[in-house]
Design goal:
It is built from 3 helices and 15 strands. It is mainly beta. The chain starts with 37 loop residues before the first strand and ends in a 7-residue tail after the last strand.
């Protein structure tokens, strides 16, 4: 009887499937510089999902101009705060931190996360200027943080600190823009970074599932017929050939499942507002959204209350159609 031929089970593209080192996701790349200087990122806390009715604005679609029901994820996005501007210098080994300019005013909860400087940032602005004139300055980024203690749905006080790039314009303009944000108190909102209708890349840490077997972790088939008579229905058949005499990393085995950082590209932002969006009885496992929020088309990684980060899309699929027309946002109960 011929042996069936089929592709391997489970993608190796996300291996090794280890636990994320931090619940605050990281971006390793940023969009190209164009337009005016500005902050290239924001963060919020996932509240839950609902659906909206909007006018289909997709060009050449058979339903263009008609009402369409779309599932959306609600992310609570209160204003963030920038506390420092970090400059990087170009070296033969890549970017290396050069210096930092810190603000004088810190949130009362920030010392839960960082050891705040006590001597200020005297002289560091001149160091950035000297590096800029010498052509050694490579990039500038803001050290920003959230304020979860002001949200009723997030049960923690410790701020989430992250590094966000300042992009657009020339290096001189980006340094000047970053220093202005620090001097003005550092507070900035989602509207300062994104506009409804734009595409964004969203990063988050997925829901943790602990140790799972190869069937759930890799999607291999369960044993059938006489091969499952020993009670080993959810095990793989073997660990590989005799040669090479080792177990290769491509063999699907049990291990950590979930709690991995994942970045989803080209998620469309449908609305940024502060109107009533909480369903009757509140979002399950979250509660009420009382401040600023963002509606993102489709689902996002991670459970409720978890931090998600946004950045402008690095490779958008098409040009954004700004300010989509929303006719209705569902506030029906999610609890059945």
């Amino acid at each position: 009887m011929p042996q069936p031929s089929r592709p391997r089970k489970g993608s190796m593209g996300f291996s090794p499937r280890n636990r994320s080192a931090s619940e605050t996701p990281r971006f390793n790349s940023w969009p190209d510089d164009d337009g005016q200087p500005g902050v290239q990122g924001f963060a919020g806390y996932k509240a839950g999902m609902t659906h909206v009715v909007l006018i289909n604005d997709e060009p050449n679609s058979p339903r263009e101009g008609m009402e369409t029901t779309v599932p959306v994820t609600v992310v609570e996005t209160p204003p963030m705060r920038a506390v420092a501007l970090r400059a990087y210098e170009d070296t033969p080994y890549g970017l290396r931190p050069l210096t930092e300019v810190w603000t004088d005013e810190f949130h009362s909860e920030l010392d839960r996360t960082l050891d705040l400087p006590e001597d200020g940032s005297d002289g560091t602005e001149a160091q950035i200027t000297d590096a800029l004139e010498a052509g050694e300055l490579g990039d500038v980024r803001l050290i920003t943080h959230t304020v979860p203690s002001e949200l009723d749905g997030v049960p923690k006080k410790k701020p989430d600190v992250m590094e966000t790039r300042v992009g657009g314009g020339s290096l001189e303009e980006r340094v000047e823009h970053g220093l202005e944000i620090i001097e003005d108190g550092g507070e900035h909102s989602m509207n300062d970074v994104f506009r409804a209708g734009e595409y964004a890349d969203v990063a988050g840490v997925t829901k943790g599932k602990g140790t799972q077997g190869p069937v759930k972790r890799w999607g291999v088939q369960k044993r059938k017929g006489k091969h499952a008579r020993q009670g080993w229905r959810r095990r793989i058949g073997n660990l590989g050939p005799w040669n090479p005499s080792r177990v290769r990393s491509t063999v699907p085995q049990q291990g950590q499942t979930g709690y991995h950082q994942r970045t989803e590209l080209n998620k469309r932002i449908l609305d940024i507002g502060d109107d009533e969006v909480t369903p009757e009885g509140g979002f399950v496992n979250y509660g009420e959204v009382e401040g600023n929020y963002t509606l993102v088309k489709g689902s996002l990684p991670g459970p409720e209350k978890r931090l998600v980060r946004f950045r402008p899309a690095v490779r958008p699929s098409d040009s954004p159609r700004l300010d989509p027309e929303l006719r209705y946002v569902s506030t029906d109960s999610n609890q059945g």
